[in-house]
Structure formats: structure tokens, C-alpha cells
Amino acid sequence: MKNSVLIIGMDGAPWKLLKPWIDEGKLPAFSKLLKMGSGGDLRATIPPFSCSAWTSLFTGKNPGKHGIYEYTTDLGELINSKSIKVVKLWQILSHYKKRCGVINVIMTYPVEKINGYMVSGPLTPSQEKTYSYPPKLMTILKKHGYEIRIRYGKNRLLPNQENIIERRYDFLKKLYDIMEKRYYTLKELMDEPWDFFMFVIDETAMLQHLFLDRKDVMLKFFKKIDFYIGDLIKTFSIKNTNPYIFVVSDHGFSSSPIKSFNMKAWLEKNGILKDNRTFQQKIIPKIYNKLNKLYLSELILFFNKLKRSREVFQRKLSVSSSVYYKYPGIYIRQEQLKDMKYEKLRDNLIRELKQIHDPVSHEKVFQIVEKKEVIYSGNYSKSTPDIVAVPNSKFNVIFSYDSNTLFDDIEMHLRGKHFSDIYGMLLASGKGILPGTIKNASIYDIFPTVLHILDVPLPHDLDGNVLKGIFKENSHLFKKNIIYSKIKVKTLQEKNNIQNILEDIEL
Fold first, then answer.
1. Where does residue 236 rank: exposed (0-12), middle (13-18), buried (19+ CB within 10 A)?
2. What is the DSSP string of 246-274?
3. 25-38 tens-digit pLDDT
């Protein structure tokens, strides 16, 4: 009997948040899935940004291979699906004639031709009129009033105004509204035969940004998600035989940091960094700070848009230093050092970074301190930090010339953040899946596991593995050998790119 796969993504949903509610029966659809399968933590990427993590999920590769680390290029330009350097899950499935539905997944704009449907997700430009494949799918989206993202104030996904918490209940109403429209759209789209279908509920991340301090508000919202998910699974299961259901998230969430740690001040204190800024580099940040205090935010936004200056300027300011910090780690201008000095500096920094702790609470600042080659591999790992240094959730690491203080108490406007939360969730249900707890699963493992279930050969260069441990030992999927493709992945990627170019040519 032919298998089918449904992936339900929930942006930023941690297993530690949902598991108690599942056990207490407050989320019946989730409880049913867990009763019929397995659940547990899912290790995400570093950094645990949505753009990087979801890309790793649908490529099976670490950021050093697919090239996606953050939302913008060094010039401040927004990245998109064309920035991804490797073949995607739906490209392989389409090549093998598997019918795919891909809805609201980040890094899918601009959409591409696949064997099925695609509706792009976050990072779709607000002025874009057609964000579906095939284009005629827009008729269904418009019928349901489908929205890509929260359109508050110049279409920004997450406004940073100081009064955002005062307005959070307005955002909550919008979250409910967007989610309901997406539910009715998905219900219609899923009522067809599919080999593979994936959609992402990205409202869960915004919810935690704004309401992580209100578990009652969050539970009510997740109950609504639970109802929608239960009904959509039923819709999918009617038309698709032998369905395997995966609920996944791209990272976790924690309360916002309460202390800042100034890496610039620490590097100076230890004699590693000297202030080599020019007069211009010293004076411009002070001008920006004064404008901010005068609340001339619209003027600043206009000036930044016109010059595309502030973010690029701040980046240039940081990298002008021989050693600097930009999340998720420390960068060293290696051209200024000989190999032995470079390695000695890295070893010394790693040893010292692991020992840094808050003098009041005695908590260590960093949870992960590693050389970049331990975390990343591939052609695009050269742009990664030389030392990966991910802080614990209570600390916000900055690289600021405005202060020489190492530690400062801070109060952030948002209630939740996820820059330190590298564990999301995985819930798997289907025929032959072993009940219990999933252990040691990585976001890279979803890609090969889906291919294995759908009898599609795996590429040779994946960083993930088939999650054979979730299957019962007497099941077909446990006993079945893992098959690898004879087709070069690069050839498949080039073929897909040529096909997309030809389709763009108007005859």
C-alpha cells in the first residue's frame, strides 16, 4: 500500500511547552497522535533562526551547505528561495512523480514549479500579487481571504515599538483571524490525493513573542490549533492511504533575556581588541542614538531606507575590528594572523569563554562554545563565525562601543525570544511507529526520513539520517534497506533551475 506524508510545522513550538498539556488531555488531537506514535525534542540549527532551520529541514543539510544563516545579505538585502544553494525536498519528490503541496513555508518565495501546489510563506514581499504555483491557485486564496503574514504598520512581521505589549491583544485577534483563514484554505487544498503535504503555522512564534508570560492565553490559542490540526489530519487521511503525520518545529522559545553581556568590553579588558574606529565610525552611532531619544523614528526609517545605511554601517563598524562578535559567535580576521597564532587565539578564547559567568547569579553566559568546523561543514561555511558562542537564554550578548560595562540588567519589550533555544519538537504518528519518546533527533533527519517512507532514493551528501529508531523492529520501514540515489544531486538542481528559467520566458 502506498504511503503518504503530512508535515505540520509550528514555528518555535517547544516540546517542553506542549508535553504537559498533551499529557493532561488539554490538546486531544495532539494526545491522539502521541498515543499512536512518538514525541520528543528536535535539535535545530545554529543559529535557531526560522530561515536557517526550515531550510535545513527541507534540504537535510547544515547551513554550511545550503548557505542560509540569517534573513539578509551583507548588503542588507532580504534573502529568498533563490539564495538556497542545494536541492530541496519537493524538487526531489517532484522528480520522482510524487505529488506535493507546500503551503506557508519560509524561504519558498519566489515560488517554483513543482508537481503540485506551492504557496509561499514569510518573507514574501507585501506588494507581490501572485505568490502561488500554479498562479491560478490565487483564486482559492483570495476566496478565503488568505494572508501571508501579519500586516501591521508597513507590513512588518514583528514591529519593535516600545508599546508593543500594550497592543498585544490587537495582535492576538489578528493571529486568530489569519489562522482561521489559513485553516479553511488548507482544508480545501488538502481535499485531494497527495504523496506529500507540508504547511507551517507561523502564528505560534508571534504568540510566544508577545504572550510567553501568559500561559492561559497561549493554551487557549493552542487549543484552537489543536482543533484545526485534528480536522485537517482527518481531511488528509480520507484521501490519502497509509498517512504518516509529523508535527515539527524549527526551534524552541524562552523568556526574554534579563541581562546583557558586552563582548566588546570583555575583549578589550582581556587585551584582545583595540578601538580602531575612525572619527566617522565614532560619531554616527551617537547621532542615531540622539534621534532615537527624540522619537524621530519615521525620519530614521526614511533615512535608513534611502541610504540602506544603518544596518550595513553597523556591520562594517563591527567587522572593522580584528575580532568581533555577531550572533551566533566570534569572528576573527584571519588574514591578520598566521595559522599558529590564529589557532592559539581560538583555543584561548574558547577556554576563556566557557568560564565566563554572571558575578551575581554565577550562571555561565554561554551554553555552546565550539570551533566552527564542529558545527558547520560545506562550501558556505567560510562565512560562519570562527568560534560559535551561543548564550544561555538569560543573556543577550552585544558588541557595543557605547559602554565599557560587562554586565547590565535589561528589560526587553518582547516577552519571549528564541536565539538560545536550539530544541524544538517532533511528534510522529503512523503505521509501524513505535510509541514512546523520540531521542537524539535532529532537524536534518526529517528530509531523509520522508524520502525513506515514500520509497524515494536518498542523496549521498545529507547531514541527517533516517529516523529508524521511531519504527517498530518488525515494521516494513525498519526492515527496509535505505536506498541511495544514482542521480547526482547537482544535476537535479541544475535541471530544475533550467526548467524554471524556460518557464519565465514569454513566447
1. buried
2. EEE-S---EEPPSEEEEHHHHHHHTTS--
3. 999 999 999 999 99
